[in-house]
Amino acid sequence: xxxxxxxxxxxxxxxxxxxxxxxxxxxxxxxxxxxxxxxxxxxxxxxxxxxxxxxxxxxxxxxxxxxxxxxxxxxxxxxxxxxxxxxxxxxxxxxxxxxxxxxxxxxxxxxxxxxxxxxxxxxxxxxxxxxxxxxxxxxxxxxxxxxxxxxxxxxxxxxxxxxxxxxxxxxxxxxxxxxxxxxxxxxxxxxxxxxxxxxxxxxxxxxxxxxxxxxxxxxxxxxxxxxxxxxxxxxxxxxxxxxxxxxxxxxxxxxxxxxxxxxxxxxxxxxxxxxxxxxxxxxxxxxxxxxxxxxxxxxxxxxxxxxxxxxxxxxxxxxxxxxxxxxxxxxxxxxxxxxxxxxxxxxxx
Length: 349
Ligand code: NAD
Fold this sequence. Notes:
By secondary structure, this protein is α/β, with parallel strands linked by helices.
């Protein structure tokens, strides 16, 4: 049994207790939580867990060997280093931290102390992503040349610490970090160029959305987009291969795959508009295509914590590695640079 504690019992900290760790009672014992806001004691009471009076009290508890950090982004680095130096293994919430320099300090602390240090990139277990991964890995569309991954909301950037620059706010570090991590895990190639435009519709201090265009070594393109002023959403995923297209509309994974059934049948019923007619852009007739349901996937989010425990016990290697996090943070920094200077970053990542 691994003794576990959470630092930060806000939205995500509560989720760690309720939805993840309490579901693994045979592997993990919940020792308690520490949050700087005394109001969160009510949440601790509701969850039936101990509220430590101070960070020091939590760190001194020898029963605690693993700590999850679910505090605002600017606090991850120092708390992670402090926890590792006090003998705790650490899971940091995403984004791991705010810069590559910070990340190297955290990794050094892990090396020096021999403690596991990993990041909660939980959206690797999302069904929409796993569906696209299956389509891509099993080559269901033929050679893929374009992947578009978007999340859209219409409520602007949240009004909490997420709209403050010093707290590590902004959508690149919030949702972007999930979508970029997914793309890096999906496509097993180097990125050769990156370009990014940010939006500041609802907040001038940090980005409230962005569009990034990534090009991989083979020429495959990926568009990654987060929007918070979208009253009509574009599909969550749109993937084009030489023989077909897949669309995943939303988190509930509605969508389909459409593949060509007969390349020879190129004849089309022209679309007539006031300005003329087009065959090139006419929709395909049903006899030249086949429609397929999306493949079914059943990822288990609890595998994240199972893996961390197994890594602590030396039974498995950690799934979310330092190398992956370094690459992800290099990409994030490239996108910030691209957006700031309005340039394409020609850097192998
Ligand atoms: P939140 O504001 O709801 O909660 C943060 C909590 O941290 C608050 O209760 C606050 O009082 C506490 N806190 C602040 N400073 C502290 C300190 N010095 N010591 C102890 N507690 C402190 O924020 P949230 O939405 O729960 O986000 C927390 C972290 O989780 C962020 O890094 C965020 O990016 C991440 N997050 C991840 C996901 C995911 O899907 N992986 C989803 C949401 C949030």
